[in-house]
Specification:
Layout lengths: L8 H19 L17 H11 L6 H16 L5 H17 L2 H26 L5 H81 L3 H30 L16 H12 L4 E8 L8 H21 L3 E10 L2 E9 L13 H13 L2 E8 L5 E10 L8
Parallel strand pairs: 1-2
Antiparallel strand pairs: 2-3, 3-5, 4-5
Length: about 400
């Protein structure tokens, strides 16, 4: 047997009110018709009770309720009739459209319209009087009117549900955008922290190791000088980043990220930090000086040079570290090469986050980057980092 859900409390109330009203009308003798096929007045109570029972199914099983209500109404027409039975039938038709499946909601109004038209035509043909039209009007009021009213109610209800779902989807998309924005901001902050501090900390690590391992006052003093210089500069960079975050969005905080105009400062700093490891740093700037680049492009190029110099300080063998900047068509070319091989003395450990950060910066601008071993023009084996950044900024969505 199919499970039958319990009637809704509103349906129980409607059935009770309909049955009570019908009993009141029967008690005071208000009938809808005169003598019919079944003339006993008590016979009208049977369709009334059945229709009240059908009302209990109006929400839980609307189509079943309609199928039971139709023969019940026909049975009521064979008796003296009760207005409450007819009113409950109209409610069952309404509920079948509102609570029934979509297919039934489309077919019931059409079916009730056809029934109304059929009754009107049949009565006119049989009675051949204008009063016969009243039968058609009454049939329309009992069947078609509640059906078409229910269609309007259902459409409004569906529209409200659609609007609610759209609002929920909009809220969900807004939350997803917020999470993505927070994630992107965290990634940007991680890149900035790594690029700004890693260079100084790497120099501090290498020179402090040298100062501890080499028992020479002059070397130790020189190493301590480099450590102090990088500590002060690292602290200044950290304060600048904190100030940038603190005043973000206010419009009056510290600005401006570093640009390629100060890349020579990076080279000079790398010469100082790498001197004890046998590294020499050179810069070849073949850019068109008159052309200004978008700020994100200049920042990305600056950070790529900075991270590559930091990696050279950590891992490169003694020799030349060459930085080359050039325009190639509509692309800015950034290339850094360093000696590939074993190196003596202390080394700072690497985490691989620098390469990840460089790739992220280039991807956000729609450029390309490659990092790996290669061969220099003179046949030396080198580690080469080469990035091509579009001069026209092209942001790529992730």
């Amino acid at each position: 047997m199919l499970p039958v859900s319990r009637p809704h409390r509103h349906d129980v109330l409607i059935a009770a009110v309909g049955l009570s009203g019908g009993l009141l009308l029967w008690t005071i003798g208000l009938h809808m018709q005169g003598v019919r096929l079944i003339g006993a007045p008590w016979a009208a109570l049977v369709p009334l009770a059945v229709m009240a029972g059908v009302e209990l199914l109006r929400r839980s099983a609307p189509l079943t309720a309609l199928l039971l209500a139709v023969p019940t109404l026909v049975a009521d027409l064979l008796t003296v009739g009760n207005l409450a039975t007819v009113m409950m039938f109209t409610d069952v038709v309404y509920a079948a459209v509102v609570y029934g499946p979509p297919a039934a909601a489309r077919r019931i109004p059409v079916g009730s319209l056809l029934v109304t038209a059929g009754v009107t035509i049949g009565c006119l043909t049989w009675f051949r009087t204008a009063e016969a039209l009243l039968f058609g009007v009454l049939t329309g009021l009992v069947s078609f009117a509640p059906a078409i009213t229910a269609v309007s109610v259902r459409n409004h209800r569906d529209a409200a549900e659609t609007a609610r779902l759209r609002a929920d989807q909009t809220a969900l998309l807004a939350e997803m955008d917020r999470v993505q924005a927070v994630t992107a901001e965290r990634a940007r902050m991680a890149r900035e922290l790594h690029d700004m501090v890693a260079n100084h900390l790497s120099a501090i690590a290498i020179h402090s190791t040298a100062a501890l391992s080499i028992d020479d006052p002059g070397t130790s003093r020189e190493a301590l000088g480099v450590i102090r210089e990088n500590s002060v500069e690292g602290l200044a960079e950290m304060r600048r980043l904190i100030g940038l975050l603190r005043h973000s969005g206010t419009g009056n905080g510290p600005s401006a990220a570093p640009t390629l105009a100060s890349v020579d400062v990076l080279i000079e700093q790398a010469r100082t930090n790498g001197a004890s490891s046998g590294l020499t740093c050179t810069l070849e700037d073949a850019r068109r000086d008159a052309e200004r680049l978008p700020a994100p492009v200049e920042l990305a190029a600056y950070r790529i040079v900075q991270e590559s110099l930091t990696n050279a300080l950590k891992h490169a063998a003694p020799g030349q570290v060459a930085v080359r900047l050039a325009h190639e068509g509509d692309m800015l070319s950034v290339e850094i090469t360093s000696e590939l091989g074993s190196r003596p003395g202390p080394r700072a450990p690497g985490s691989g986050a620098g390469l990840v950060g460089m790739r992220e910066r280039v991807a956000l601008l729609g450029g390309t980057i490659a990092a790996g071993p290669g061969t220099a023009e003179d046949g030396r084996t080198v580690w080469r980092v080469r990035a091509e950044l579009p001069v026209e900024e092209r942001t790529v969505r992730q």
